[in-house]
Amino acid sequence: MASLFDEWKRRFGRLADALLQPVRRIGLLPTAPADQWLDGRFEHQHRTVDYKLFVPGRGMGRPRPLLLMLHGCTQHPEDFAAGTRMNRLAAELGFLVLYPSQTQKHNAGRCWNWFLPQHQQAGRGEPALLAALTQAVMHEHGADPARVYVAGLSAGGSMADILGRVHPELFAAVGVHAGLPAGAAHDLVSAIGAMKNGPDKATLSGPMRPTIVFHGDADETVHPRNGEQVAADAVAGLLAAGERAPAHEMRGRSEGGRAFTRWTYADTRGRIAVEHWLLHGAGHAWAGGSADGSFTDPAGPDASAEMLRFFLSHPRTR
Question: Signal sequence: where (predicted)?
Fold first, then answer.
């Protein structure tokens, strides 16, 4: 079964090829600049963060979308980029992709500290650091401020949910893969409980951005009830904003044989504002990823492709 991303790319690719054919015939199409994989370091509020930045050759010279990618525990940017294969897709679509690196100094397992109150607020801790880093990269590379997104895996997915809530003025949409909802924990003990059993109740308030969620129903590290709650919070945000949010359920199977159920919730204009993908038989791993990285499930569906497809349909409008 072809992915939604492949269908979207096929339709727009045909149009682009048709428009470029006359230019190709007379040899006027310029050679695209090379992609870049850059190292960087950023300091904010007396804390320093290292990062990797993928800068595609495509779209050079005009504002491009930017995706902040937050790795899971024990991972690092190079590993996360290889496992998700996000840079390959970003090269095709002209996305800047920013990968900050957590350190063992700030968390022994290299996890983002999503479970501590000081890292669940705007203007403090890791949300402040990551938002400031994103803004600095936007400024330096001329990113489109209406198309800035955040996604992550596990602890990174949990921090992505927090960032979408506390910085809705910055991030247009959010992707959470095998993560927990913002406010599910307030210390390490409650974090372990939420990971094992699901959240008692997400307590972090704030406006919700369009959200796409992936979670395996055989995940033994982060209970799938957490993915359900992330999606439920996003739907509740739609309803609170006066949207209808009717649900649609679809069952399918990826090209790699992974069965899934996908729920979508549309706004009053008919645009899908929340997607929840439940991956049957999948564990704690990035769907459709590469074995070149850790915590990946090559059986799919391709979470990276589907997230980019979802993000591009949601520029920030307010």
Answer: none
What is the C-alpha to C-alpha distance for residues 20 and 58, in angstroms, rounded to an integer?
Answer: 15
Residue 47: count other Cβ atoms within 10 Å of its Cβ. Answer: 15
The continuous run of DSSP H or E covering 154 comes out as none
Read off the pTM. 0.89
Single out the residue of 54, 114, 56, 58 nearest to residue 82, CA to CA. Answer: 54
User: With 80 as the cut, is the pLDDT of residue 318 above it?
Assistant: no
DSSP string, 218-244: T-SSS-THHHHHHHHHHHHHHHHTT--
Q: Where are the alpha helices (DSSP H) in the chain?
A: 4-25, 77-84, 86-93, 125-141, 155-166, 188-197, 225-240, 303-312
Residue 159 has pLDDT above 80, yes or no: yes
Q: Give me the residues paired with residue 175 across strands.
A: 151, 212
At residue 258, does pLDDT exceed 90?
yes
Q: Tokens representing 192?
A: 């372990």
CA-wise closest residue to 95 among 316, 292, 312, 287 = 312
Domain locations along the chain: 36-312
Question: Based on the number of CB atoms within 10 Å of its own CB, is 242 exposed (0-12), middle (13-18) or buried (19 or more)?
Answer: exposed
**Is pLDDT of 10 > 70?**
no
Q: What is the rounded CA–CA span in Å between residue 220 and residue 226?
A: 12
**8 Å CB contact between 96 and 90:** yes
The contacts of residue 34 (CB under 8 Å, 6+ apart) are 57
Give the C-alpha separation, 239 to 256, whole Å.
35
pLDDT value at residue 24: 45
Side-chain-facing half-sphere of 265: CA atoms under 13 Å: 22
State how far the alpha carbon of 296 is from the alpha carbons of 30, 31, 313, in Å. Answer: 37, 34, 26
The CATH classification number of 36-312 equals 3.40.50.1820
d(CA 43, CA 192): 30
